[in-house]
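Retro notes - structure team

What went well: the batch runner handled both jobs without manual restarts.
What didn't: labels got mixed up in the shared folder, which is why I'm recording both outputs here explicitly, each with its sequence directly above its tokens.

Job 1
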Amino acid sequence: MKWIGQHIVDLIARFRSDVYLDSPTAGGSDPDKFLGIDSNNKIIYRTGSEVLSDIGGGDGDITSVTAGNALTGGGTSGALTINHEDTSSQASVDNSGRTFIQDIELDTYGHVISIASATDSDTHSGDITGVTIQTDSGSGSKATDTAGSADFSILGANGVGVTNSGTTITAVAVPGEIDHDSLSNFSDSKHFTQGEIVTVGTIGTGVWQGDAITTDYIGDDQITEDKLADTLLDEIDANTAKATNVTTNLTATTHASQITINSSDGTNVVVAEASGSIAGVMTVAHHDKLDGIETNATADQTRADIEGLEITTVGTVSNGTWNGTKISSVYANTGGRRYGNILKILPQDFMVNHDVLTEPLTFKDGGNSGVAVSNTASEMIAFVAIPEGMKATALDIHATNNKTVKIFEIEIDDSFDFDSATANETGSANTQITIDPAISATALNYLAIIYVATATTNRIWGGALTIAPQ
């Protein structure tokens, strides 16, 4: 509270916290009164001699005062002054907003020598403790959120849309969605479509912009000369001397090269055939010539025109000599082994490797038929040439067991070490092995396919190499 002027309290006054005197007046003389607090926390005053007695003091025998650490002044006679030394270089700090003092460093004497400030990134704005939204549904179904981020969805319905711009939410009607038949005050007897209006009163003003008014709805003798166009009036005036409403019959006489229009009461007209200089009728000869031209034909085609068509499909060429580009093996059978994009690998294509001497491959023709090794250390190898213009993309080896299959690309003009070389692809029998990247045919390369049998009871029946144009 703040008092202006003097305020005298007759009753006992108590202060529950600190009491400060902002601007006490210096006494003109020694009043010999000193304020104190007794055992009941009541403010009292004591005289100088009483205070000296209270603290056990006397005249004293101090002969000198020496300034200690962080102090200046002192002396050995007279009234002595002790000054507090400023040992701090820290300037004052005046923060505001969300910037606050975070750290204060003191020196040995308790002086502030460093102040560090920090800023709170959280705005902590507002004091909202809950948000409630109540609609036409009533308070029983109101939406309330009292913690965290209050997120609500305000959605429109049929005929009503909801938009927002910043903090402004607007509910608007959507005419295209409104079914007027469902409105509470809708009455069939008060609503009509335009097509249902068949009777109106007298239309006194306005501009007619509908369909043309038929003569059935124009009264007799209601259109005056002033209402007719000037050009029509001129034509009527020009025709007054001519015969009107005269009937003539027209017939036609046809010919291979002309047609005659016959008039019952006038001059006949002969329309001759068209020529390079005049228009006319199409003759029979013209018709027959045009009828012999195929659909969409534009002119006689030259060889260059035909080659420009880039024909990709023709019928069966039964005779003649082919003098074009060499036919690629893409379109030629390879010794009867090719079937579409498959190159067959037959049992006879396999041979035994040199790991075990005098141990040949055999073809077992019993119940467990197929090519077999005679020693478990032997392996079967087939060598397959890729047709010119083609590339090998996949391999299937068909056998009794799913043993390891390796594919190598080698060339006919060099030795090849199968033991140290890395296979182009490795897989298993009875599972298609994709060759990626595909191996394209060259003048020198071919494929070596190794089947690791591991047992004399394992059999190979054959294989299929999938090929595709390069």
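Job 2
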Amino acid sequence: MIGDTLGNPVISAWQVAPGVCWIQTSSPYFALRLKKRSDSRLVATGVSGGYLRTYEVPRPLRWARRFMADHQTKLTAANERFSVQERPTSRRKMKLAQRGGLEIRTRQLGDVGKKPNIGDRQF
């Protein structure tokens, strides 16, 4: 029915016309998911404090209910790249990695921009 609202403070939806609903979100995560849909369009943005986007989708309110329920359980955005481990650069390292003899070191968040100290060397 037109005027019915569903959702929570982060994401909510209501029907504005038969077969058309608006979805409003204060989360950049949900806004990205709506932005990537080909059938949605941005109709309003918040200008006074906080993050607020409202999208129009030519779908019924029951679809918006399923959209919100489905997307609240998933953690990756639509069309987002999966993070994968980099492949070893040489054939020797590739064979060692396949056998489990090569430990690939990943850079830790605290290591960014940090220069090693001479005392940190291990012999």
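One thing worth noting from job 2: The chain has one domain: 1-102.
We'll revisit the folder naming next retro.
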